[in-house]
UniProtKB/TrEMBL annotation:
Mg(2+) binds at E72, D95, D98, D222. This is Inositol monophosphatase. It comes from Pseudovibrio exalbescens. PANTHER family: INOSITOL MONOPHOSPHATASE (PTHR20854), INOSITOL-1-MONOPHOSPHATASE-RELATED (PTHR20854:SF4). GO terms for biological process: inositol metabolic process; phosphatidylinositol phosphate biosynthetic process; signal transduction. One of its GO terms (molecular function) is inositol monophosphate 1-phosphatase activity. Keywords: Magnesium, Metal-binding.
Length: 276
């Protein structure tokens, strides 16, 4: 199988089945021994993350043996695997449970994120919601679409929103000085939030429900799919310093916006606060 719509459909079906069997049965049903921390006490990983990633890796191996797999948990164990995105022609990037803190604490704001890269460029992205079994996906050059388990599909546009300066800014990931500077400019925004879940934040931007989303860490499993989906929906994605985003990047801050104008408006306020 090659990088075709049939492959992407098969991949989505695998994600849905694994979520039904590994993620949802454990939601609000985790034992304390099934939750662990990684880099900090609130940087969590659960048995659902690990089992889902293992099975997704196996599924990619069946569907497309030539593809490399870069999973969040595998990289946690072996950081050198990140280089596969740049080295291998085809790479499938997996976030088995995005928003693990929410998931482990019983909040229904989590998802599965899948990105497929070809020669270091994202060509497919998936933002899947296991709770309602629906998803937003995009193939490069083909636009973004929302689809339900019942088969209802519609094209989405980020340009149809109200155009308000409402956005997602992860203040807890900024330095103390940056937090103060952003706080001092709160009156220039309509509203600033954080869902602690890139999957649902990008779903909101791509549908124009919010204006922008700032990412303070460039982890490809969090952002490669979302950046493509926002761009294919009519929005924009770039580093706040102006560079075009690529999933091989590891430093900087990524800003996605529902429109080019929203990108300009958000940048004009965030850049001074972040001292970029």
């Amino acid at each position: 199988m090659k990088l075709t719509p049939a492959f992407y459909e098969a991949l989505i079906n695998e994600v849905r089945q694994i979520a039904r069997e590994e993620i949802m049965p454990r939601f609000r049903n985790l034992e304390t021994t099934q939750i662990d921390s990684k880099t900090a006490p609130d940087d969590l990983v659960t048995i659902a993350d690990k089992r889902s990633e293992e099975r997704l890796t196996e599924a990619v191996g069946r569907l497309l043996p030539s593809a490399a797999v870069v999973g969040e948990e595998a990289v946690s164990d072996d950081p050198s695997r990140l280089s596969l995105i740049d080295r291998e022609d085809i790479c499938v990037i997996v976030d088995p449970v995005d928003g693990t803190w929410n998931y482990a604490n019983g909040l229904a704001t989590f998802g599965v994120i899948i990105a497929v890269t070809y020669k270091g460029e994202t060509v497919f992205g998936l933002l899947y919601d296991p709770v309602l079994d629906d998803w937003i996906c995009a193939e490069k050059g083909a636009g973004s679409r929302f689809q339900t388990a019942a088969g209802h599909t519609r094209k989405i546009s980020s340009l149809e929103g109200p155009g308000l300066l409402t956005g997602m800014v992860p203040l807890y990931l900024l330095s103390p000085d940056q937090r103060l500077a952003v706080g001092a400019r709160l009156s220039e925004f309509n509203r600033l939030n954080s869902l602690r879940c890139s999957c649902h934040e990008y779903r909101l931007v791509s549908q124009g429900r919010i204006g922008f989303c700032l990412a303070a860490n460039l982890k490809p499993w969090d952002h490669a799919a979302g950046a493509l989906i926002v761009e294919e929906a009519g929005g924009a994605a770039q580093l706040i310093t102006g560079e075009r985003y690529r999933p091989t990047m590891s430093e900087g801050m990524l800003l996605t916006a529902a429109s080019p104008q929203m990108m300009e408006d958000a940048l004009s306020r965030l850049r001074p606060a972040l001292q970029v």
